[in-house]
Every structure is written in C-alpha cells, then in structure tokens.
Amino acid sequence: MPSIVHRFRGFQPVVVDVETGGFNARTDALLELAVCIIEMDEDGWLHPGEVMMQHIEAFPGANIEEAALEFNGIRPDHPLRQAMPEREALRELFLPVRHSLRETGCRRAVLVGHNAHFDLGFLNAAIERTGYKRNPFHPFSCFDTATLGGLAYGQTVLARAVAAAGLDWDKSQAHSAAYDTERTAALFCNIVNRWRHLQELEEDSA
User: Fold this and answer.
1) pLDDT of amino acid 206
2) Phi and psi based region of residue 47 (left: phi greater than 0; alpha: psi -120 to 50; beta: remaining)
3) Could you please report the per-residue DSSP string of the chain?
4) Across the strands, what pairs with 48?
5) Below-50 pLDDT ranges, the chain
6) Pick from 127, 133, 136, 142: which is nearest to 99 by CA?
7) Sheet holding 46-55, edge to edge
8) Which of 7, 10, 162, 197 is most solvent-facing, going by the fewest CB within 10 Å?
9) Is the pTM of this model over 0.90?
10) 175 catalytic residue (yes or no)
11) What pLDDT shows up at residue 85?
12) pLDDT, tens digit, for every residue of 66-115?
C-alpha cells in the first residue's frame, strides 16, 4: 500500500500559515498559527487533514504594526480572542504533528507554505524565543506553493493560484491563518496529485 514516508524522502508535508504584527520575525509579534497535516490515502493520493489553529499572545516587547492589523483584521486585545502564550501554542500544534510522524514513520515534518520562508522564519523565531526543544519541523527545508503555483498554473498569488486550480476562494475569509492554511493545503494536494496523474498518463501512452 502506498505510504507518505516514501513520497517525500521520509518527510511529511505539514501546511503552516502565520498571521503577524509585521514582516520581521525577530521583532514583530506572532499572532496566529495554523497547521494542517497532509495525509495519503490507500491509493496514494494526497488529502488535507484537519486544520488546527491557535491565537497567540504577543511576546513581551513585540512590535505590532497598525498596517499589519489592518491587513489581517486581527484585534490583539479583543476580550473573546482567547489567545495563549507562544510556547503553549507551539506545544498544542506540534503534538499532533509529532504523533503523525510516529504513525507514518516519517523522520521530520517539512513546512508547506505560500511564500514558505516567511512562515518558517516566524516559526523558527518563536521556537528559539521560547526555547522549545521538540520541534518536529526541518529547520530550513520547505515546499513553497507560490513556486509550485507558478509552475503548475502560472500564478504565484495564493487567491489566483487557487482559482486557476479550479478550487473555491472566499475573499471574506482570506488572511486568517486557518483559512489560508486550508486553501494552501488544498492547492498543494491538487498540484502534487495533478503531477502524479500526468505521470500516469505518460506511462500509459508509452
């Protein structure tokens, strides 16, 4: 039976999206973090797993740009936001990733993101800041759906790549970590599955 451990050289793709208080991972607040573990069915096709998301308290001394809040719509001080400290959020979201690695036999999780190095930079900064020791993610390798979308559909903007792939896009939900993660996961699976389908067609015609 096909197994994801053999598809990506022992790595398990996990889609990550962050919403932040700016562009500098060292100085700007991490405000939302969402993850989605990519799964493989018994026929070898990829599917997005459950999207898990946490609201995060800005770390002490963190910078938050007003322009960033206008863009993502986050109100850090909203009384119903139920944010948690960075370390607790990492633990809550990394635990199911580590459990999946044990189940699949994969060595590490590899971050999948749209402009992935932005998300990986904020993730790594939070891990370093909190001294978190059980990070399941590879520290620098990643899959970027901006690049893959450009290759597959000629589109590097997430909304346009999703639309070009024939998937739904709800503008009103965009720029929340949970929604962007879900759409990025769908796009990633679509591209990888499409590539496999094209390979099978080529083999059948040979």
Assistant:
1) 67
2) beta
3) ---HHHHTTTEEEEEEEEEESSS-TTTBPEEEEEEEEEEE-TTS-EEEEEEEEEEBPPPTT-B--HHHHHHH---TT-TT---B-HHHHHHHHHHHHHHHHHHHT-SEEEEEETTHHHHHHHHHHHHHHHT-----EEEEEEEEHHHHHHHHHS--SHHHHHHHTT----GGGTTSHHHHHHHHHHHHHHHHHHHHHHHHHHHHH-
4) 38
5) none
6) 136
7) 46-55, 30-40, 11-20, 108-113, 137-144
8) 197
9) yes
10) yes
11) 97
12) 999 999 999 999 988 999 999 999 999 999 999 999 999 999 999 999 99
In this structure, what token pair is assigned to residue 2? 């096909």
Tokens of 61: 């001394």
Identify the pLDDT of residue 202: 83
Alpha carbon separation from 17 to 47, 73, 151, 181 (Å, rounded): 17, 15, 21, 5
Contact call for residues 142 and 120 (beta carbons, < 8 A)? yes
Q: Which one from 99, 114, 175, 197 is the annotated catalytic residue?
A: 175
